[in-house]
């Protein structure tokens, strides 16, 4: 037997209950002829007559009555199943999986995630911190957050968090009193510095900018680590100069544990973006998060 279209079964049930092609067509907003074609197609595939048609009435045959008795509960289950799925669209539920860099997980997401989860109690967040670039759909994530230079061209990007961030350098006041304040990024080559190495093994150079001039330096490393807390503690202890996202240094700069180094050279750059594959139908939790992120305006980072 050829495959039977569920829509044809639904049309048969509607006509049988209305006892009229015209009445069923009016209820469904369709033409009587289209419903007649659907029933005829179903009868042809089954090899059975399901409805007796006269100019005055439509009644089920014995085969049609038996089919209708079994079909109505099944169609009810299908409708209930579709309604259950619709809840994911109308009242989003489910898990949203995000892959984000360390800076975003520590400085941007905490407040945003708390507000989002309060607004959507049916959604659970699963966040993995990763400073490398990953295949979002291939690795089982709904979306990721990265900076502009790491975004793929076939992804949709939505700004999230501060729109401007900067790379800052600092050292303990006692260190600067003993070793002096560098006047140019090149002078960092004669200072012990605290560097960051990513899990991939990459240890990027420090980049500074002033009046359009960009200077990249690879200073000597007193300490190399991938843990910001350790790096920051060593800088506060006066062991050397530390450079990183301004957000990581802000509290220590504010209370005087650290002092700015080369502040006029701190380089600004665009903030991160939420990115996800281009597709027409998005999972409801992701759609809710995208809409929520768009509704929130990220503040700009204050330099200095």
Q: Helical stretch count?
A: 10
Radius of gyration: 32 Å
Cα end-to-end separation: 76 Å
The CATH level-2 architecture of the largest domain is identified as 3-Layer(aba) Sandwich
* Helix proportion range: 25-40%
* N-to-C SSE string, H for helix and E for strand: HHHEEHEHHEEEEHEEEEHEHEEEH
Strand content: 15-25%
In CATH's first tier, which class of the largest domain applies? Alpha Beta
Tertiary shape: rod-shaped
CATH third-level topology of the largest domain: D-Maltodextrin-Binding Protein, domain 2
**Assembly state here?**
single chain
Number of domains: 3
Outline the structure in words.
Strands 7, 8, 11, 12, 13 and 14 form a 6-stranded mixed beta sheet that branches. This protein has 3 domains: 6-87, Orthogonal Bundle (Arc Repressor Mutant, subunit A), CATH 1.10.10.10; 94-162 and 271-295, D-Maltodextrin-Binding Protein, domain 2, CATH 3.40.190; 164-269, D-Maltodextrin-Binding Protein, domain 2 (3-Layer(aba) Sandwich). The protein is α/β, with parallel strands linked by helices and 304 residues long. Helix 1 (6-18) packs across helix 2, helix 1 packs across helix 3 and helix 1 crosses helix 4 (62-90). Helices cover 39% and strands 24% of the residues. 28% of the residues are buried. It has helices at 6-18, 21-28, 32-46, 62-90, 102-107, 109-119, 173-179, 228-236, 246-254, 284-295, and strands spanning 51-53, 58-60, 94-100, 123-129, 143-146, 155-159, 164-171, 193-196, 206-210, 213-217, 221-225, 241-245, 259-261, 267-270, 273-277.
């Amino acid at each position: 037997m050829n495959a039977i279209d569920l829509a044809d079964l639904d049309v048969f049930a509607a006509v049988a209950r209305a006892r009229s092609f015209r009445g069923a067509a009016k209820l469904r907003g369709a033409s009587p002829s289209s419903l007649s074609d659907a029933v005829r197609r179903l009868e042809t595939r089954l090899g059975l007559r399901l409805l007796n048609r006269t100019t005055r009435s439509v009644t089920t045959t014995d085969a049609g009555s038996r089919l209708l008795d079994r079909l109505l509960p099944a169609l009810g289950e299908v409708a209930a199943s579709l309604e259950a799925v619709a809840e994911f669209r109308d009242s989003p539920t489910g898990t949203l999986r995000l892959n984000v860099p360390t800076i975003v997980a520590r400085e941007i997401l905490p407040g945003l995630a708390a507000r989002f989860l309060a607004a959507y109690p049916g959604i659970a967040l699963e966040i993995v911190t990763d400073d490398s670039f990953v295949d979002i759909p291939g690795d089982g994530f709904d979306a990721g957050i990265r900076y502009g230079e790491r975004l793929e061209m076939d992804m949709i990007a939505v700004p999230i968090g501060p729109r401007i961030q900067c790379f800052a350098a600092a050292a303990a006041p006692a260190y600067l009193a003993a070793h002096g304040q560098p006047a140019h990024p090149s002078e960092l080559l004669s200072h012990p510095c605290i560097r960051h190495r990513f899990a991939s093994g990459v240890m990027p150079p420090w980049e500074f900018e002033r009046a359009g001039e960009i200077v990249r330096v690879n200073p000597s490393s007193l300490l190399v680590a991938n843990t910001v807390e350790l790096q920051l503690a060593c800088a506060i202890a006066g062991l050397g100069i530390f450079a990183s996202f301004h957000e990581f240094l802000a509290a220590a700069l504010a209370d005087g544990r650290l002092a700015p180094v080369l502040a006029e050279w701190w380089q600004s750059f665009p903030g991160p973006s939420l990115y996800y594959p281009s597709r027409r139908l998005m999972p409801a939790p992701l759609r809710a998060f995208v809409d929520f992120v768009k509704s929130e305006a990220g503040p700009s980072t204050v330099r200095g």
